[in-house]
Design brief:
By secondary structure, the chain is of the alpha+beta class. The chain is about 55% helix and about 10% strand. It folds into four domains: about 160 residues, Beta Polymerase, domain 2 (2-Layer Sandwich), CATH 3.30.460.10; about 90 residues, Hydrophobic Seed Protein (Orthogonal Bundle), CATH 1.10.110; about 180 residues, Hypothetical protein af1432; about 55 residues. It comes from Agrococcus versicolor.
Amino acid sequence: MTSMAEATARLQEVAATGPTTVLADAFAAAGFELSLVGGPVRDALLGRRTTDLDYTTDARADDILRIVRPVSDAQWDVGREFGTIACRIDGMTVEVTTYRADVYDRLSRKPEVSFGERLEDDLVRRDLTVNAMALQLVARSAEGVAERVDPRLVDVGGGLEHLLAGLLDTPQAPEDSFRDDPLRMLRAARFEAQLGFRVVDRVRDAMTEAAATIEHISAERVRDELVKLLSTTDPTGGLRLLTDTGILEHVLPEVPALRLEVDEHAHHKDVYEHSLTVLRQGIALEAARHPGAAPDVVSRLAGLLHDIGKPATRHVANGAVTFYNHDLVGARLATKRLKALRFDNDTVKAVSRLVELHLRFYGYMDAQWTDAAVRRYVRDAGPLLERLHILTRSDVTTRNRRKADRLDFAYDDLERRIADLQEQEQVDAMRPDLDGEQIMAILGIGPSRAVGDAYRMLLEARIEDGPLGAERAESVLRKWWADRSAE
């Protein structure tokens, strides 16, 4: 957005959308106010496409539901207790929420839901001025009658000015805003990354002062906000803000711990900066390899956390710094932290496994791998192989161009060999040549631990020698069984 004229034109455009016109007419006829609010107004002013339309009104939930039923294809009242009704109009899902004037219990951090009567009071309780603007469509006249009005911008905190200047501020004093809901500090960091704006000094200072209060927020809410931050096109600005203000110490303490002390005798690269670079490069690779795909939070978490085992494994000897086994230690730390943040088990396992495997490729650099070694690499990565490709490639942050080119060439070669083996052997669906039923039939045994041992032995033979075929696999199995029985 570059001018007021441009801003006005964009607001007029969003006011003319189908759902907005339909709802404005319906609420005016029913005698209630209505405004488009928050993100859709912000995005319209920025010239960004928005798929979410949020409205606010002085009507209560029962009245909202009564008004939208005749003009919508479907309705949902799952947010009724918070004054929110969702509905579908012209193929778009929209939400309408009663003005809020919440009072926070500052011990439990849970708002006591309180509904308001004025649009301005609703806006001033919002997180940031750029999100505290509304496009008013139906307003009350001096006589108190709700009437359709020419769309007008209601801006209680200078949000339009802040949009023009690329600044993030709070509608009320930031100390009060963060005291009411500390999660707003994470939202400020997320919008710094998402919009590329700068948090103003008073907000940054208040975040630093209130950093520890983020621990009052439930792990699930913190996790969801962290996921939104990591889903932006470049989360590093937001992460830096959280680190600099001390908030990340209470959310992901393993990340700021990567700012390892560099002494005069043991120079090494800044692991914190390296990790942010890996995250950024991984996002770029993600976009290049899978254009249009949704953000891959698993890959991004792995990029951010891949070296968190280094502080615990750092060792200095004869002027050299080593981090032996930091991959294994990091995997355990990642598991513990992500569980504490209530991530689902699949995410926890995937991120931990990627952290554990992120150094595996460097063995390929040391010596030419056999086909068996390539098969093991694929088997160990399993369904995470593509993510491991991205993590390994993005982990190259050296400024030495020759070294970087050599690493890229080596990984190109590894991916080519994997592709060749997959074409020849379907190595990504690696299974032994005999299944459990066949093993039991050949050996004349029932379900037992021995069947599992035989299965794993045949899988290792498959990895080492490639496809055996049923006849040769049976011969290998019988010999293994005979040797085992003779022990």
